[in-house]
Amino acid sequence: MSEPTGSETVERHEFNAEVGRLLDLVVHALYSEREIFLRELVANAADAIDKRRFEALVNPELALPADSKLRILPDKAARSITISDAGIGMTKLELGQNLGTIARSGTLAFASKVADAKAEDRPSLIGQFGVGFYSAFMVADRVEVTSRHAGSEEAWSWASEGRGDYTLAPASRAEPGTDIVLHLKEDAGEYLEPIRLQTIIRKWADHITVPIVLVHDGEEEPANAGTALWRKPKSEISEDDYAEFYRHVSHAFDTPWATLHWRAEGALDFSALLFVPGMKPFQAVEGERESRVRLHVRRMFITDQAGMLPPWLRFVTGVVDTEDLPLNVSREMLQATPVLARIRRAVTAKVLGELKSRAKDAESYAGFWENFGPILKEGLYEDAEHRKDLSALIRFRSSSVEGWTSLADYVSRMKPEQKDIYYLVGDDTEALAKSPQLEGFRARGVEVLLLADQIDSFWPERLDRFEEKPVRSITQGNIDLSQLPLEGETAEAADLSALLPKLTEALKDEVAEVRASDRLVDSAVLLSASAMGPDLQMQRLLRRAGRAGGSFAVLEVNPRHPLIRRLAESGETDLAEAAGTLLDLARLQDGDAPRDPAGFARKVTEALAGSFK
Question: For the region A, what residue ranges are annotated (predicted)?
């Protein structure tokens, strides 16, 4: 219908959809953040400019002005925001079709038109669904659009309060393009502040190629970087450029340890610029397990929660930008798609390849490992697909060599008779290096890897073996070292056939077994774990978590130690007190408290007092 207003005719139209319910969905449910309205309108404006640039390839008269830019003007007095572009613009018919029909996308229609164009000529279109424009109603109670199509002298205005209808009327505009005026709601005043608008643009549209300016106090201030560093050839980028961009995306102050910049073309089409930090971030990455690599689609930021890398590479920061990733209508959540899965695999493989290459420089890699090694080891536990690759990247402290060592280096040093890769888990590397658990191995020149990270209690069982060598905890099971000859003289072993049953009876409620050990040299006793239960460190973790079940501990006694020899020769029948003391000694050696700390202290005090009589 038409309504005469002076010399002009205002046409009033109903939306061509069940607009009440749909607009309510857009305003209240489609987007998780209200500020998204500006990203959507900027994306639409960028599309319009790209469309005009594309059309100008065929019709030079439509060429963009030399100073083409996207202007954003907040007006506090009028409580409005005006977004202006010099793009392709819209005719009266297009205003009705694109803005008057919810979920009809002019961009999508245009994309089909240029599907056969050369890749370098195609505009970089962002909008697909025709609903992004309506996000304006999240902050505005009235929206006015004035547009003039490039190549036409006519301009038209579209206006709506988002309540079921809109109006079309003749208008005037000096140049082709579009102006969108948002009349803000009472609770949307924050978007009149230039600093707030600047922050939103920096977050969501910093790297689109269209220059964006914010008009403040009559002056135009640049609001976006306008370039996507990851899209530029490496030859045009300096190390300082990389470092500055790294600090921008990571909010860090160090220099990246590694920079990965590449473009994938073919079955997958994406660009990536990733960084491995040179130091641990101030905010710990152990608690937050999600990768925060930023996903862009055609330079427009979409999300940093796309899981572009697995959790065990979450310390990597940067950007992945793709051309053809399908999104859901809000552009905030990704559709489940094989394309995204392939991009993730490709990006993960690239990072692993870079780490393998850099691991050849032992000194440099040691610094990386000290920063992020515990996180990388999480992949050994949870990622079967990459476990083999990760096993070549992990590093350890050792009982036999200084510094860090790899599994491959360990295997190269194994004794000819040695079949297993041995390791010991605890809370502190220095304490592990002094553990009596190592005595029998040192006496035979057998190396043991020392593991002191929290994740070390979990992943060895998943890795199981390396280069066909079983990976085995020295505290679990009855390890037989008889095939490995001792490198020095040892005392003769006592006959423990009578002693062991007595100790077993005395400790039947405390340990699963008491047995003789061939892997002790200086210590009288040590604790180990039965082959069927968790190793000692896991048992400690379970106790701390209040989840300890039955006892899986085994008390091993040294038949060559003077104390054990004296007990075996004493002929005593009641060994309850001696057995308890031996168990407490074994617990202390492994960093645990005695069963009765006060009682144990009393015994030690009495023994010391007796020695001075």
Answer: 1-331
